Amino acid sequence: MPRTVTRRRWVSLLALLLATVVVGVGAPQTGAIAAPNPAPKENDEKKLRDNLEAAAKGQIEAQRKLDDAKRRAFRLNKEVAALDTQVDVMRTQVGAMALESYRTGRLTPLSALLNSASPDDFLRRAGSLEMMAQRDAGALRGYQEAHEAAQQAKAQLDAEVQEQKKQVATLAQRKADAERALRSVGGGTTSAGYINPNSPAAQPAKRNSDGSWPSESCSVDDPTPASGCITPRTLHALREAQADGFKRYVSCHRSGGGGEHPKGRACDFSAAAGGFQNKSATGGDKTYGDNLAAYFIKNADALGVLYVIWYRRIWMPGTGWKSYNGGSDPAANHTNHVHLSML
Q1: Strand partners, 230
Q2: For this UniProt entry, which residues form the secretion signal (predicted)?
Q3: Are residues 126 and 260 in the same domain?
């Protein structure tokens, strides 16, 4: 075979091979299933998530303290009203005693002795004198105790009012902190979000006796394909959502990075039925994400939700829905999955 023909064949084969490689590498894989990456800019995203977590936790704690202060103030208001009524009654009794003493004069041991017809009569009068003294002393003591109790309750009520003002100021500060953190990445403006009053009601997660949330560690197995561990409260929220019909692909624990995933306090819920896709959800997938986000918002207090991110928006207690800019791809902007972070 001539050398020129052989060389031409080798050149043709090489060109065909190069074309195959270029096509294989350059062709975009739209719609491919891949784990969402909500932290494309690890440093900036970690700082943002840390700031959002601190702000959201501060809001929830301040709201809890405010609610507690309101409950205590309500109870103290009723107590003060009852004590004021008691003081008024005791004041009337003491006034009547004083008026009686002024009109009739006080019975003294000397007058009891001089006016007694017999020793037995004297003993009877002396007994009456002692009973009157005990009655008067008891009435005066009761009035004093009721008055002091009323003053103490009013002081406690004043303290609760001041506590309410303090927590309202804290809520405002935490809200400002969250909005400032979001503005740092181009978000933070008030946005129409996803609210559905017809969302199912989830079973509440366990709380402490005072209504606060117990501290939980990453202590239970993550049942999602992500493996690893999650907190009991996160598992409860996941199970409740699935029980209420949100059964598409979910991934919770993720090693490394910022945010709540490594702590077992976050899950990513795919909008698409087949798993995470590298494109923004549309149609039925978008509706699924809307409904899921609305579900977590409605049940935020019952489940212990820290914040929810979906479709370039973030919801936090005390701020409502705000615009969110996480990056330039569907995973970073959370347009292909709903992100749930838990307390």
Answers
A1: 220
A2: 1-34
A3: no
CB contact at 8 A, 151 and 161: no
Q: Does 41 reside within a domain?
A: no
Q: 36-74 burial, b for 16+ CB within 10 Å, e for fewer?
A: bbbbeeeeebeebbebbbebbbbbbbbbbbbebbeebbe
CA angle 224, 227, 233 (to 5 degrees): 65
Task: Give the ranges where 184-259 is alpha helix by DSSP (H).
Answer: 232-243
Shared domain for 222 and 78, answered yes or no, is no
223 and 273 together in one domain: yes
**Residue among 293, 325, 268, 299 at smallest CA distance from 37:** 268
Q: How confident is the model at residue 42 (pLDDT cuts 50, 70, 90)?
A: very low
Distance in Å from the first CA to the final CA of the chain: 77
143-185 confidence digits (pLDDT tens):
777 778 878 878 887 887 787 777 777 767 766 776 676 666 5
Residue 64 has pLDDT above 80, yes or no: no
In this model, does residue 126 exceed pLDDT 80? no
Per-residue buried b or exposed e for 8-26, using 16+ beta carbons within 10 Å of the residue's own CB: eeeeeeeeeeeeeeeeeee
- In this structure, the answer to whether residues 334 and 202 fall within a common structural domain is yes
Residues 235 and 310 placed together within one structural domain of the fold = yes
In this structure, is residue 22 part of a structural domain? Answer: no
Residue with tokens 């207090």: 301
Going by their DSSP bridges, the two strands 305-310 and 266-270 should be labelled as unpaired
Average pLDDT, the chain: 76
Q: With respect to residue 50, please indicate whether it lies within any of the assigned structural domains.
A: no
Q: With respect to residue 52, please indicate whether it lies within any of the assigned structural domains.
A: no
SS3 label, residue 308? strand
